[in-house]
Design a protein that fits this description.
By secondary structure, the chain is of the alpha/beta class. The protein has 11 helices and 9 strands. The structure holds ligand LH6CIYWY.
């Protein structure tokens, strides 16, 4: 599925343009961006994102370093999107590994504090940034691997599911899943679709209805992650796996069917509708709080 999106983006420039209009690149572009320089290895850092790029292998490693738990705030999401955009523009970068610099946590999902008691404008901007992250990762031209070296609930799980492959630390204290239901909120349908594309319909129904968080072993069993390794080995395994993937001829140029393109269009249209609804809902909440 991820590859289908990538192909659509490559073959439909108009769509890419539409996407970029929908996305929050506007505010993103105004911010500082980690630079990639033409040398064998480079490292670039924003406050919350560190990118190490090895030009000889064409593989970049994005370290999320937003303490304490890499929660996805507007600022953090913007940094992630800028870093990804930069890598995407560098055609020598063919693979991206995403991992966490925080102990025990890959990402705690959306920053709850950035969703509560904020202006409708902030909420709209925030929500756009969440969608942009999803679209950018899912539609990436690079091979993407999530090195899930800690817990990854809700939006953190979404982030990992937008990657081509997930390697998780085999530590039963960690968990991963879309647990929104348990928090009393409904996972947006495109979270759901992403999970369906990863683990199938029935597993997703169960996961979302019950707000399940899975141990690494359970996650492997349902296909939510692809591989478990000792936590010291997550990053090295990810880069080794990347090398194998990139050695496959034409891996970045696989052709895709119209079916996937239609599905992607549906997702896009629904996303626009959802975005409008979220903003209206946020405005209503805001108004009701005033009384
Ligand atoms: C703006 C929106 C506008 C319109 C949209 C409207 C509606 C949208 C509708 C639905 C949206 C649905 C989508 C939701 C997706 C999400 O991602 S929701 C977030 C769900 N996240 C969680 O449930 C994770 C909760 N956290 C944990 O389970 C644990 O913290 C974790 C396992 C990650 C780590 O555990 P541990 O190492 O023990 O650390 P602590 O629990 O002690 O936490 C450390 C500090 O971090 C703070 N924190 C944890 N998670 C978050 C978070 N998601 N956002 C902000 N802050 C977080 C925690 O409070 C501790 O802070 P403290 O040290 O106490 O100050």
């Amino acid at each position: 599925m991820k590859m289908a999106l990538r192909a659509c983006l490559r073959t439909k420039p108009g769509l890419t343009a539409l996407l970029s209009q929908l996305s929050c690149s506007g505010h993103a572009a105004a911010r500082r961006a980690p630079a990639l320089v033409a040398q064998r290895s480079s490292s670039s850092t924003s406050q919350k994102i560190k990118v190490d790029f090895d030009q000889s292998s064409g593989v970049a490693v994005m370290h999320m370093q937003s303490p304490p738990v890499n929660s996805l705030s507007l600022e953090f999401l913007t940094d992630v999107c800028i870093a990804l955009e930069k890598l995407e523009m560098d055609k020598s970068c063919r693979g991206l590994v995403v991992t966490s610099s925080q102990p025990k946590v890959f990402s705690a999902g959306l920053d709850i504090l950035d969703m509560y008691g904020k202006s409708p404008e902030h909420c709209a901007e925030f929500w756009k940034a969440v969608q942009e992250m999803w679209l950018k990762f899912y539609g990436s031209n690079m091979i993407t691997i999530a090195a899930v070296n800690g817990s990854s609930p809700a939006g953190g799980c979404l982030l990992s599911m937008t990657c081509d492959y997930r390697i998780m630390a085999d530590n039963p204290r960690y968990s991963i899943g879309l647990n929104e239901t348990k928090l009393g909120i409904v996972a947006p349908f495109w979270f759901k679709d992403t999970m369906v594309n990863t683990v199938g319909h029935r597993a997703t129904e169960m996961a979302l209805q019950l707000g399940l968080l899975y141990s690494p072993a359970e996650a492997l069993k349902i296909g939510l992650v692809d591989q478990l390794v000792h936590e010291d080995q997550v990053l090295t395994t990810a880069t080794e796996t990347m090398t194998k993937w990139l050695a496959i001829p034409g891996i970045l140029n696989i052709s895709y069917t119209c079916h996937f393109f239609h599905l992607w269009c549906c997702n896009l249209v629904c996303t626009i509708c959802s975005c409008v609804c979220q903003v209206i809902a946020a405005k209503k909440i805001h108004l009701s709080q005033d009384f």
